[in-house]
Each structure stands twice: as C-alpha cells, then as structure tokens.
Write a structure and sequence with these properties.
Blueprint (H helix, E strand, L loop, with lengths): L5 E4 L2 E4 L4 E4 L2 E3 L3 H13 L4 E2 H8 L7 H15 L9 E4 L3 E4 L4 E3 L1 H10 L9 H18 L1
Antiparallel strand pairs: 1-2, 1-8, 2-3, 3-4, 5-7, 6-7
Helix pairs in contact: 1-3, 4-5
Length: about 150
Amino acid sequence: MDTTPRFQFGRYEFDPGTFKLLRDGETLALEPKGIDLLRLLLERAPRVVEKQEIFSIVWKDVAVTDNALTRLVTHIRKVLEDDPKTPRYIETIATRGYRFVAPVTRVNVEELAREDNRQPMPAADNRGPIAYAQRRSFQLSYLAVG
C-alpha cells in the first residue's frame, strides 16, 4: 500500500503518489517539473527552499538558469490561481528562493482509510445496507489504488 502522504491546502489536494493536483476533487494540469517543485515546497513548508536546493532536486544533473525556475513558479501560481503580489500559496524570497505560505495538512492514505471505516452507516439510505456496503467498498478500493 502506498504510504506517501497527501497534502491538503485551501481547496487543493496534492497526491505525490499519483502525481495529481486536485482542486475541489477535479484534476488540474500541472507539468512534471511543476509537480516536482510543488512537492518540494509542500514537504519543506513553511521554511524557505533555497534556489540551489530546488535546482539540485528538480533539475538534478541538469544546468538551468534562474529563468527556468521563475517560469515554473509562474506556471504553478497560474494553476493555483495565486498572485505573486499577495501570495496565498507561494511566496518569493528575493534572491534566496521560495516558501509555501498556506497552512498545509499532511494526510496519510492509511489514516483516510481508518477514518472512512469509522463513519457510521446512514440509517436513511433507502437503497439498503448492501448498496451502502458496495459503495463503501468501491470508495475504499479507489482509495487503495490512489
């Protein structure tokens, strides 16, 4: 079972195990390097991630300019609908790097499964307990695959 934690912030959920960024449950398009950078910023939040650290992780063994990093941060901000002048998610630390500033919650898939199992079966479900159990098993199997 995948034990990589998911990250929740604002209306967003980031699942590094499936390389998906979701907003209100809908998958958003984020380029591969953007996924790598977002994961790094979320893992290090709320501390500043220096440019050199970003280059060594996101562009391992590849020489790129500051412009490539700036372009990538702009792409992520656009997807997150974040404004660099009043950042809700990614703050620029001049000449140093970037910091993820929104509150981040780490959620383990195992915790989600345990919480899902604790919810009582609704009494008002007119489709009966078998239909409810089938829905629950689908949700859990989807969760295990994710």
